[in-house]
Design goal:
With 362 residues, the protein is α/β, with parallel strands linked by helices. The protein folds into 3 domains: 54 residues, 434 Repressor (Amino-terminal Domain); 109 residues, Response regulator (Rossmann fold), CATH 3.40.50; 148 residues, Rossmann fold (3-Layer(aba) Sandwich), CATH 3.40.50.2300. The chain has a 6-stranded parallel beta sheet with strand order 2-1-3-4-5-11, sandwiched between helices. It has a 4-stranded parallel beta sheet with strand order 7-6-8-9, sandwiched between helices. Helix 12 links the parallel strand 8 and strand 9. Helix 6 runs parallel beside helix 7. The chain is elongated and about 85 Å long.
């Protein structure tokens, strides 16, 4: 049978309110001699503080909510690992929710709204929105988070959004896209296809803007910009859509199929630029399904440098973002709002075999 707080108060000779303030961590603490008497009574009786009572006394739950798009996506799992590291360092536990299955009768943003409402109901100290922000945010989400921040909650987003009072981890998506295309242009590549991802997602749209504007500054434009889902399947389907638009045979031997249309021009084959790594990996699978070789027939580049790339061959050229560091930074912004932190996060181009580079074992 569990020991009640009233029993501790009685043994210590103090009021119930005083015992609660000592054991549940209130900012209003009694004199040290009284506090010690209460703790001694609690230890003697074997009293275990109630977590909910502690949260009420401290005005904190020790919880932080993290919303990602797809828990299985290595991009989000790396960010989540960084969030968890920083949260544990400040004595917090992470509640995780994915939004790849839409809720609220399938309405856009329904799953994210449901996750946020759940985190609010659990009185989390902060909510981190790691999924790419939308061009037009759900007004219900904006309203819910506005009420949450009004009552002391903190919100952090990865990338700028229209969510009021949200702190922002600015990720160098545009700068990375510019740097990646510049590196490929330096290697003599002049023909590109862009796998754009969903236009309504800020991350995808900003990266594509960086791709196309850098090409334009070099007097080039992509052969095609194909919209698709921000997933491996999206990259696979978008690549097949482009290949099918070329017509002709699917095999390399006929001379009129994709291989001949995409083959090296002045020694440099066409390069598929994907808005993220998982789309790029899906694209590589689609190219192989049509008998195309990478990089001999088609080159491929992605974005993010997700941890699982080391398991794929040929190695994927990409723009490396410090994903775990982004997660740690988001958590620190959420849980240590007074600490001065970097305004933005950038990365670096990594050239591997898939597009103009050599094998790297990193």
């Amino acid at each position: 049978m569990s020991v009640k707080l009233t029993e501790v108060a009685r043994l210590a000779g103090v009021s119930l309110a005083t015992a609660s303030r000592v054991l549940n961590g209130s900012n209003r603490t009694p004199a040290p001699i009284i506090a010690e008497r209460v703790r001694a009574a609690a230890e003697e009786l074997g009293y275990v503080p109630n977590a909910q009572a502690q949260a009420l006394a401290r005005s904190t739950t020790g919880l932080v909510g993290l919303v990602v798009h797809d828990i299985a996506d290595p991009y989000f799992s790396a960010i989540a690992h960084g969030v968890q590291q920083a949260a544990l360092g400040s004595g917090h536990q992470v509640l995780l929710a994915g939004t790849d299955i839409e809720g609220d009768a399938g309405s856009p943003g329904g799953a994210e709204l449901a996750a946020v409402n759940a985190f609010i109901s659990y009185r989390t100290d902060a909510i981190i929105l790691a999924a790419s922000r939308l061009l037009h945010e759900d007004p219900r989400l904006i309203k819910a988070l506005a009420q949450y921040t009004t009552h002391g909650g903190r919100v952090v987003t990865l990338g700028v959004s229209s969510i009021l009072d949200a702190q922002v981890v600015r990720v160098g998506n545009y700068e990375g896209a510019v740097a990646l295309v510049a590196a490929l242009l330096q290697r003599g590549i002049r023909r590109f296809v862009v796998l754009a991802g969903p236009h309504e997602r800020n991350t995808a749209r900003i990266r594509v803007q960086g791709f196309t504007e850098t090409l334009a500054s070099a007097g080039l434009e992509p052969l095609a910009v194909v919209q698709g889902v921000f997933t491996s399947q999206g990259g696979y389907d978008s690549t097949l859509e482009f290949l099918d638009s070329l017509g002709g045979s699917d095999s390399m031997g006929g001379g009129t199929g994709p291989a001949s249309a995409l083959g090296p021009e002045d020694g440099a084959p066409l390069c598929i630029l994907a808005a993220n790594d998982v789309m790029a990996l899906g694209s590589m699978a689609a190219l192989r399904s049509r008998g195309l070789r990478i990089p001999q027939d088609v080159q491929v580049a992605g974005f993010d440098d997700i941890p699982t790339l080391r398991d794929h061959f040929p190695g994927l050229t990409t723009y490396r973002l410090p994903l775990e560091e982004i997660g740690r930074l988001a958590a620190k912004m959420a849980l240590s709002p007074l600490v001065k932190l970097p305004a933005s996060v950038t990365g670096s181009v990594v050239l591997r075999e898939s597009a103009g580079g050599v094998a790297q074992h990193d």
